[in-house]
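User: quick one - fold this with 5-phosphoarabinonic acid bound?
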Amino acid sequence: MSVINDYKVGMTVYGKISGIKPYGAFVSFEDGVNGLIHISEISNGFVRNISNYVQIGDYCMLKVIDVDTQTKQLRLSFKALEQNTRKYQKRVKFEGMPDNVKGFGSISDKLDDWIKDFNKNEKKNGENMLKLDLNYAKLDKDIFSYQEKVNEAHKWLHEKSGKGSDYVGWVEWPNNYDKEEFDRILSLSEKLKGKYDVLLVCGIGGSYLGARAALEMIRGLYPEKGPEVIFVGNTFSNTYISQVLKHIEGKDVVLNVISKSGTTTETALAFRIFKQYIEKRYGKEEARERIIATTDKNKGTLKALADKEGYEEFVVPDDIGGRYSVFTAVGLLPLALAGVDIKELMEGSKLAYNDLATSKLEDNAAYRYAVARRILNDQGYKSEMFVSYHLQLTMVGEWWKQLFGESEGKDGNGLLPTSVCYSTDLHSLGQFVQDGNKCLYETLFLIDNMPEDIIFPNDDENLDGMNYLSGKNVSWVNKMAQEGTLSAHSEEGGVPNIIINLKDNSAKAFGYMIYFFFKACGMTCYLLDINPFNQPGVEVYKKKMFKLLGKE
Ligand code: PA5
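Assistant: Sure. Structure tokens for the protein plus 5-phosphoarabinonic acid:
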């Protein structure tokens, strides 16, 4: 018997909002049944915008008001849960309502078409990987008034005609990445499988942040499978380097050194130390098998060294800068060595490429995000705070900060990218966001389906007074913290919030999200007439430091 028969009119059910249209909100249930809350069933009051009441991903308590066993669809109501409801008496007119819809009676006739239409649109959007919600962004300008400027900047990106156009190789990369090198990455990771407990990844900035963000987001902070991955070459901290050396004692290691220029000091310093350690421990011959270099195809100190030592080498393409290089060997090799499915990751980047290849703002969420950033900048906000709700997403924030900070922070311009992880940081920076200087807005980076949920246990004595949460999922508690904080910061605090919802923490979703931010970053910089692909400012400290270090 079909599961739809389990549903009866009058039942109270708990479903997830899976789509929002001008005429209603779609709801899905874990058993595969779908339903619609028509706009007139949201509230007894006038509802102009459904998104002011529910958001995609919300879990809601609803009343079943009709069951269509033929189409296996439910008609659902919020307001029927309210007391003294005057059901069916109100007829509302709303934007986008088909002319032939006169009242509630005709909804069941239309429901089927609407659901088909909804599914069609959802499929077009990269399997529904990422959603952007600007309902809380408090924009004082219409996003679409930027369409012309966006068209122009889109051409600069796609036709390589804007500032820094020698470095837009990443735009087409999901289509034309080097398949031969990709296969070499897969065979090497297969060949080395089981030969190491620790993978040392030696690199800094764009040569490390992407891989680390991916690993933590996809595997979590304490993964059950795969090697331990330790990032070195990203600091001059003597204590850190010494502790890593002690920590790897007695463990089998493989080292991937990554540097496009091949001359970055933090990386070169650590590489010499760990290279000598590996050679001493395994001998020069075996060290050759345990060290892999990712660097420029033709030039640089690391390239020359790798050639001389006979290391296996992978390439950072000429036309892709460090912070745009996650989909090259820079990100793919350490990820493959750590057991991440890099085919899936590239699939995600391709999905994003397809979704975001248009200049039409209406269809391009990355460009809408870019425009929203510009509008908020003009409204006087000088900082964007990237907010996640899972500790394993902290490094995504670090990667995002580098991408936007190095790309946009030029010519006295740019939003200061900052990041926090809530609810942890609600106990530190939460006070500032709620009540402090109104210099910032928040960008919520939410993932709908994080794995490994926990049901909060009951305690008969209830000494901690926590029994009000007994039987609830910890993910639900986190979600309520999210909703409460959004309302506190946005309504009482007046802080604009951009919401980015990613489907899950898979390699595919990661690939999608990275390409989304690349595209948004390129666009947002071009809208400010800034070259997104250079970083002249970082040379200044280097010159001063080299002088002090006595470098020629
Ligand atoms: O985004 C960038 O270009 C920088 O952050 C670089 O990736 C970083 O400085 C490391 O450079 P390299 O790969 O040359 O060692």
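One thing worth noting: Residues 83-108 have pLDDT under 50 and may be disordered.
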